[in-house]
Amino acid sequence: MDITARAEELQRLHRDPELLVLVNVWDVVTAKVVAGTPGTRALATASHSIAAAHGYPDGEQIPRDLMIEAVGRIVAAVDLPVTADLEAGYGDPGDTVARAIDVGVVGANLEDQLRPLPDAIRAVEAAVAAGERAGIPFVLNARTDAFLRAGDRDPQAVLADAVERGRAYLDAGASTFFVPGLLDEPTVARLVEELGPQKVNVIAVPGSLDLASLQRLGVARVSFGPWSQNVALTALAALAEDVYAGGALPEGTRRLN
After folding, report:
1. Domain chopping of the chain, boundaries
2. Does the predicted TM-score (pTM) go above 0.70?
3. Domain 3-225 has CATH 3.40.50.300
């Protein structure tokens, strides 16, 4: 599947009424395992997880070249569309998206970090333009940190801010709007009502709405961010604890690499 076909497929998966479930990956072996699991239709990288795997904290601390290289290795290892978490664009969203496209990425998350709305819109426009220059239907998933950075703000004001930003990013050419945070059903329903079905993406965190509810509400996609890596690390920590206490490998362990 060439890059245009992968981009078209990723666009189709977001428009499809069936909820797109993305289990985030962070290196080649995790990409191969998830890609080889029945039901996987596309892959998403997690910037937090890639940074952690290379010894960097989250928040654009990892060098951009290293992030792009890691994402490119994932793309080259699978025959599925890959959307990459590119944080806030590492100081140059347009060039960062262009470089990601050069290694085969066909979609990306772009954080607003709650910057002033005009600045955030310009970043979205630059990322969208990079896809247009490449000649592919790039899936830009514009993200707001409105809920993550809400603090003690009035919840209705936070929701109104998110809706305003979502409309602005979609108007600027983003394919979808990503709203991470622990969101209740009325909040998700309001976001979908205001922005449209198959436009809102969310993250699964402990206590999140179940997948059936997200499907019913018209959410386009759910991803797991760093939580998939935390699941793997939890299993690793449990193994270490068990064997240090005289145990053995857990029964049912599969050889996946």
Report:
1. 3-225
2. yes
3. no
| pLDDT of the chain, 257 residues: tens digit per residue | 899 999 999 999 999 999 999 999 999 999 999 999 999 999 999 999 999 999 999 999 999 999 999 999 999 999 999 999 999 999 999 999 999 999 999 999 999 999 999 999 999 999 999 999 999 999 999 999 999 999 999 999 999 999 999 999 999 999 999 999 999 999 999 999 999 999 999 999 999 999 999 999 999 999 999 999 999 999 999 999 999 999 999 999 999 99
SS3 41: coil
- In whole angstroms, how far apart are CA 43 and each of 17, 46, 182? 18, 10, 22
* Residue 187 CB contacts under 8 Å (≥ 6 apart), including other chains: 155, 159
